Amino acid sequence: MEPLRIYAFHGGGEIADMSIFDPFHPDVGTKVDIPYFFYVIAHPQGNVLFDTGGHPSLVSDPRMRLGDAADDFEVTMQEGDDVVSQIKRAGFSPTDIDHVVLSHLHYDHAGGIEFFPEAAFYAQQRELEFAHWPPIYQREVYVRADFDHPIEWNELVGDRDLFGDGRVLIFPTPGHTAGHQSMLVQLDDKRAVILVADAAYLPRNIDENVLPGIVWSPDAMVSSWRRIRELQRSHNADLIFTHDLDWAQKTRVAPESWYE
Q1: Is the whole-model pTM more than 0.90?
Q2: 118, part of any domain
Q3: What count of Cα atoms within 13 Å lies in the side-chain half-sphere of residue 184?
Q4: In this structure, are strands 5-17 and 74-75 parallel, antiparallel, or unpaired?
Q5: How far is CA 123 from CA 128, 144, 171, in A?
Q6: Cβ pair 157, 181 in contact under 8 A
Q7: Band of the pLDDT at 144, cuts 50, 70, 90?
Q8: Residue 85 and residue 255: Cα distance in Å, rounded?
Q9: 85 inside domain
Q10: Is residue 258 part of a domain?
Q11: d(Cα 28, Cα 50) in Å, to the nearest integer?
Q12: Burial profile 140-171: b = 16 or more Cβ within 10 angstroms, e = fewer
């Protein structure tokens, strides 16, 4: 196989209650530092950006972007944590990105869409519908200014083998939102990675069937965990979680390190 790399970029984060990860955790009431991550997959046929982090305006004025939701999520993004600044550190510019895949359209994943106008965009059709007309219990985490741009969406219904070679597979994992999706990346003949995004926040969610605090459908989420486990077994895949609280010990953070 030709070489392929995954670069994981840390784009700041936010502080919120432990109940986000597990409403019944003994540490509920404790504030935790939740990271934002996005990823570049450098494939021989093109560069893929998976998620885009928070909008740069969250650095200086989160309330302007998020409204009252800024009271619930204390954003800790700093200057240079935005997606354009971060990928530049690994030698990528926005015009180097050929494809942008959105796991879903919450503000901490979709804030950088506008900076890649020349890329092809991919989201599940159901997510685009859900984001434009969200139920009241998720309304505050969708910001239309993030995704209402003159770009061409590839509206997916199910799996998409992005390059037709089985190495970058987008697959639906609804539960967190109605149209959430994750990505399987085959690094070589023996190693693969699944970018879980928010299909689960922590390994414990999947390993012990512990539902997190922000859920559209518990049944869909548990079913998605089953699909993730199946792909993990069949591809000998490691799982990378966007909001893993132990990221500093586990994640190979770009540009100093990467997965290959």
Answers
A1: yes
A2: yes
A3: 25
A4: antiparallel
A5: 7, 15, 10
A6: no
A7: very high
A8: 12
A9: yes
A10: no
A11: 30
A12: bbbbeebbeeeeeeeebeeebebbeeebbbbb
Tracing tokens 């939701």 back to the chain, one arrives at 69
Could you identify the residue written with the tokens 């204390």? 74
Angstrom distances, CA of residue 230 to CA of 81, 95, 159, 210, 218: 34, 35, 15, 18, 19
Q: How far apart are CA 116 and CA 239, in angstroms?
A: 27
Q: Cα angle vertex 184, ends 115, 50, to 5°?
A: 10
Mean pLDDT of 202-230: 95
The dihedral built from the CA positions of residue 123, 125, 131 and 132, taken in this order, carries a sign that is positive
Residue 155 identity (one-letter amino acid): E
What is the domain range of residue 162?
A: 5-250
Match 């007309």 to its residue by tokens: 133
Side chain identity at residue 192, one-letter code: A
**Which of these, 27, 11, 225, lies nearest to 109 by C-alpha position?**
11
End-to-end CA separation in angstroms for the chain: 11
Token pair listed for 113: 């869409």
Question: Rounded CA gap, 142 and 106, in Å?
Answer: 5
Considering only residues 48 and 63, tell me which one the structure prediction assigns the higher pLDDT.
48
Number of domains in the chain: 1
pLDDT tens digits, one per residue of 66-99: 887 777 778 999 999 999 999 999 999 999 999 9
In the chain, % of residues over pLDDT 70: 100
Q: What is the CATH number of the domain that holds 241?
A: 3.60.15.10
- Residues 195-207 have a mean pLDDT of 95
